[in-house]
Amino acid sequence: MRVLFIEKQIDYEPQGIMQLSSCLKQAGHETFLAIAAQEDAVQIAREVEPDIVAYSVMTGSHQYYFDLNRQVKHALKDKAPFSVFGGPHPTFFPEMVSEPGVDGICVGEGDEALVDLANSLANGGVKPDLPNWWLKLEDEILRNPVRPLVQDLGDLPLPDRGLVYAKHDYSRVTPIKHFIGSRGCPYNCTYCFNHAYYQIYSREKRGNQRPVDQIVQEAQWVRTQWPLQQVVFIDDLFIIYDDWLEEFADKWPKEVGLPFFANVRANLIVKGPHKVELLKRAGCSTVSMGVEAANDRIRVQLLKRRMTREDMIKAGNLIRDAGIHITSTNILGLPSSTLEDDLDTMRLNGQARISYSHAFLFQPYPGTELGKFAEDQDYMVGNFDDISEIAWERSIMVFENPEEKSQVEHLQRLFAIGVEWPRLEPLIRRLIKAPHNFVTDTLYWWMHKLFKGYMIKSRIHPVKMSARDLFTAAKQLMAIRS
Question: Which structural domain, as residue segments, surrounds residue 118?
Answer without folding.
Answer: 2-143
